[in-house]
Amino acid sequence: MKLRNLFYSALCALAVTAAFTSCSDDDDDNDSWREGSKVELPQYRAFILSEGTMNRNDSHMSFFDPTSSSPVTMDIYETQNGRKLGDTANDMIEEDGYIYVVVNVSKLLLKLTGAGVEVARFSFTEELGEPRNVAAENGKLYVTCYGGYIARFDCETLAYEGKVKVDSNPEQIIVHDGTLYTVCSGLGTGNTISVVDTKNFSVSKSYQTLDNPYAIQEDNGNIYVAAYGFYDPMTWTSTPSVGVINPTTKKTTQIEGMAPTRILAVDDKLYMCTSVTPDWISYTTTFSIYDAKTGKVSSWNLKDIPSELTSGNVYMMAYNKYDRSFYIATTDYYSDSKVFHFSSDGSYLGTFTTGGINSNHMLFIK
User: Which are the contacts of 231, defined by CB distance < 8 A and separation ≥ 6?
Assistant: First the structure.
């Protein structure tokens, strides 16, 4: 099946997707995350990252109240720091109560408190190239860089500790059993995974995977990779695909019949969304689930889905581990993204706008 996706997405591979990140909870008795905050924030809080439009310096990090029906109230980064977040924010994770944000075109790695107050930043060199995505383990941050590197930083100080050369244009990155995995898109021409041992952090090995990979996610030892497929420059068409990576052999086994444009791995299941367009304007969106235990694919039973979602271009799927609900965001690439909220059983709970264009990540902290 031939699918059409916006060329900008193919080049930038701003997947998102996917937005579920393992994080440590704040200590309920520790209010240090509130220090320096200009606004009062609740203990149970969430944040939405929106990348904006490239070269317009309009990325947003919005505060999000997960208990409210109209949750987005402000650009928390600009409110707390008195300046814009930057140009094309790609990724956001939480680690030990701090929030780390990767801003691609601005070439920044930011460390924020749990209230969004900036406490440190790192500016990437031309050699490293534009940063893309970040993962954390044992007090270290690992950032993929478009110069063809994984760079390592100290979580506490944000000090740069070194780099490892990988294949061209590394995208999403995960850590599994002390091993880094990053998919390398080659700006639409690559089909490899680069693997690095975090203890040695000196050399990488490459393994073939799906064509033009944009996402890699891990859940309960299951590693998934999703790819756009190689694009025909005359028609801008491609055939997306998704597969499961064996962590021992590093071999990718494709999930037959599935061509998702966004993925989200949660509780031994891979939630998949496919947005198809014949004209770059109108879309048809469908939802599926792959069960890692059974190896079977079924329909994602979302109830009372608004037509605005099934005819929209999905840019992000996120999961709130505290109430087990799902958030699905769409984009038209020029106005604020809309989020559609569903309960754990698939019941539709409501819709709201995010305050930013091309929303790609959510964090939930309690």
Answer: 7, 10, 188, 212, 237, 238
